[in-house]
């Protein structure tokens, strides 16, 4: 088996952002317009939201969005992203290709030397042609490409796949690209979820290293792991069968089929499972949480991450050991942990360990044990 390294990390974060206050103003205006209609039908009134509620519930203050236009329009509350011709580069492939090029630049590697592209995303724009193949063409990579989706563990699942294919010699260089344009799939009229997500794209360049080769400032991937267990507590029902379930097949109804979750159940289940996953995975390699310099965890909920690490360490853990980017970016699904990695690793010393760990819908959990070279 070959040694495997992460030779490049790329991130693409949209410039546009929306604060909690802006989001709440729009949501509450919509509630004001809806409640008289509900009262006339004898229905319970909708509850309003607040910026303080959002920050307390999630740790989020703002989120960056691919397209701001339309989200704060009370009559629409969905980003306005025009359709493109089939021959034009798709929106998601364009987003992913920007991160892929950034990873290639970080590694100083030409795209044509890449022989595998995995588009690992929780929110794929379409089923086929593969977004991964489109990104492959857009950046000029060779070999093969495919899509992989595993909720918020997609990037870790892609890394797990790429690591084992490169380690076995099936591929020489692999790009794991994670474009997450989630705001287009989000119901901004759902008080429980409208504030959670932001958009970001990331990429990891994975390649084989020669025995004894040391590249300062890069990570060796020592091992990866995935775990899944079926749960309905985080779910999206938006897909091609929606049309087949309707009497009016000329209209695809999104309402009721977008992202939904049972927040309290998710918090409890995922906290317990992720703590156990981290401790067990590290133990397989003779390590404890105390011997790991940094944890790049899924950026979903600040309180959840604090609880997972408190269970693992037996004490409170701060930003230096487990950095968060959630406050300014929101939950960027599978991209979040990689953004945290990209922004918080250059101070690490050779020989220090780090753990990338993501968790989400499925349920799914993914991890990668890294060592600075």
Topology overview:
Layout: E1 3-12, E2 17-19, H1 20-40, H2 51-58, E3 62-64, H3 91-107, E4 116-120, H4 131-139, E5 144-148, H5 154-168, E6 173-180, E7 200-209, E8 219-228, E9 234-235, H6 241-244, E10 260-261, H7 263-284, E11 294-297, H8 302-313, H9 326-329, H10 336-343, E12 353-360, E13 364-372
Parallel strand pairs: 4-5, 4-6, 11-12
Antiparallel strand pairs: 1-7, 1-8, 2-3, 6-7, 8-13, 9-10, 12-13
Helix pairs in contact: 1-2, 3-4, 7-8
Attribute tags:
alpha+beta, 373 residues, 13 strands, 21% strand, two-stranded antiparallel sheet, 9-stranded mixed sheet, 32% helix
Q: Helix proportion of residues, in percent?
A: 25-40%
Low-confidence region ranges: none
What is the ordering of alpha helices and beta strands? EEHHEHEHEHEEEEHEHEHHHEE
Distance between the termini: 19 Å
The biggest sheet, with number of strands, parallel, antiparallel or mixed sense and barrel status, is: 9 strands, mixed
State the total count of DSSP E strands.
Answer: 13
Radius of gyration from CA coordinates: 21 Å
Instruction: Look at the structure and give the mean pLDDT.
Output: 95
- Spatial order of the strands forming the largest sheet: 5-4-6-7-1-8-13-12-11
The gross shape turns out to be globular
Structure classification = alpha+beta
- In percent terms, what proportion of residues is strand? 15-25%
Number of H- or I-type helical stretches: 10
């Amino acid at each position: 088996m070959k040694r495997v390294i992460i030779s490049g990390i790329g991130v693409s974060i949209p410039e546009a952002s929306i604060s909690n206050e802006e989001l709440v103003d729009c949501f509450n205006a919509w509630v004001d317009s809806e409640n008289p209609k509900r009262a006339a039908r004898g229905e319970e009134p909708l509850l309003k939201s607040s910026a303080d509620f959002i920050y307390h519930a999630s740790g989020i203050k703002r989120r960056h969005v691919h397209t701001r236009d339309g989200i704060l329009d009370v009559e629409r509350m969905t980003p306005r992203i025009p359709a493109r011709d089939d021959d034009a580069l798709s929106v998601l492939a364009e987003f992913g290709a920007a991160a892929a090029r950034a990873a290639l630049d970080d590694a100083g590697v030409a795209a044509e030397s890449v022989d595998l592209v995995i588009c690992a995303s929780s929110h794929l724009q379409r089923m086929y042609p593969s977004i991964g193949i489109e990104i492959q063409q857009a950046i000029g990579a060779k070999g093969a490409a495919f899509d992989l989706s595993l909720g918020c563990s997609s990037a870790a699942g892609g890394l797990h796949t790429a690591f084992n294919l490169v380690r076995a010699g099936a591929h020489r260089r692999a790009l794991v690209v994670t474009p997450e344009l989630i705001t287009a799939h989000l119901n901004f009229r759902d008080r429980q979820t409208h504030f959670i997500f932001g958009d970001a794209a990331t990429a990891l360049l994975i390649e084989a290293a020669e025995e004894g080769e040391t590249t300062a400032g890069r990570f060796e991937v020592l091992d990866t792991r995935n775990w899944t267990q079926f749960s309905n507590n985080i779910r999206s029902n938006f897909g091609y069968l929606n049309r087949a379930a309707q009497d009016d097949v000329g209209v695809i109804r999104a309402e009721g089929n977008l992202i939904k979750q049972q927040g309290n159940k998710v918090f409890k289940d995922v906290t317990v499972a992720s703590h156990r996953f981290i401790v067990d995975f590290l133990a397989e390699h003779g390590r404890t949480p105390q011997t790991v310099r940094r944890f790049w965890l899924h950026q979903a909920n600040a309180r959840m991450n604090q609880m997972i690490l408190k269970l693992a360490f037996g004490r409170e853990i701060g930003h230096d050991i487990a950095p968060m980017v959630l406050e300014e970016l929101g939950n960027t699904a599978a991209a979040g942990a990689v953004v945290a990695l990209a922004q918080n690793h250059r101070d690490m010393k050779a020989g220090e360990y780090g753990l990338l760990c993501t968790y989400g819908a499925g349920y799914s959990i993914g991890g990668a044990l890294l060592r600075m070279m």
